[in-house]
Amino acid sequence: MDYQDDDTTICQAVDDPEEISGLIEPYEPNVPPLSHVSPSPDDHYGGRRVSLETEGAQEVFYRGKYVTHIELTGSSLLVGRRDVMSGHYPDIDLAMYRKQDPAISRRHLRIFCDINRRYFIEDLCNNNATFVNNYEAPLNLERRELRDGDRIFVSMTLALVFRLVP
Fold it and tell me: Does residue 42 lie within any of the structural domains?
């Protein structure tokens, strides 16, 4: 059956799905796959692996389990606290420290690897600062390169240590 409008065929009804299988071509967009920086230990850090440790063996919730050591293998790591209502789940969830320190933001900081395979820390919140190595100079919406042994103060109760592991 044809549907017509002013003597022009708009579409043709087909009862059998097999009839249209040869008429429809699969859509394949001509878009290259997204690439991301994949850190390699052979690059900037002289073959050493990169990790974060919690100071004082405090545990953090990292991608489904409680840990004190995280090996950095991806290009970016979000640190903050989960918010179920908004569907926000950071890579390192610090919601358990919220009662001790309400200054932990949902999107508190990000650790990322640049194109030269160097790691940086970036403060993502404008009210609750992140500190590196001491409490004198906060990173307020700033970023800086991380070096072996840098202490990252996420709150007054938790510090992460950036380590290069042989």
Answer: no
Distance, in Å, from the CA atom of 22 to the CA atom of 33, rounded to the nearest integer, reads 28
Total of domains in the chain: 1
Enclosing domain of residue 93? 49-165
**How far from 10 is each of 17, 143, 148, 162, CA to CA, in Å?**
19, 58, 68, 65
95's CB contacts (< 8 A; 6+ apart) are 61, 81, 82, 104
State pLDDT tens for residues 33-76.
Answer: 334 445 454 456 777 889 999 998 899 999 889 999 999 988 89
- Collapsing DSSP to helix, strand or coil, 90 comes out as coil
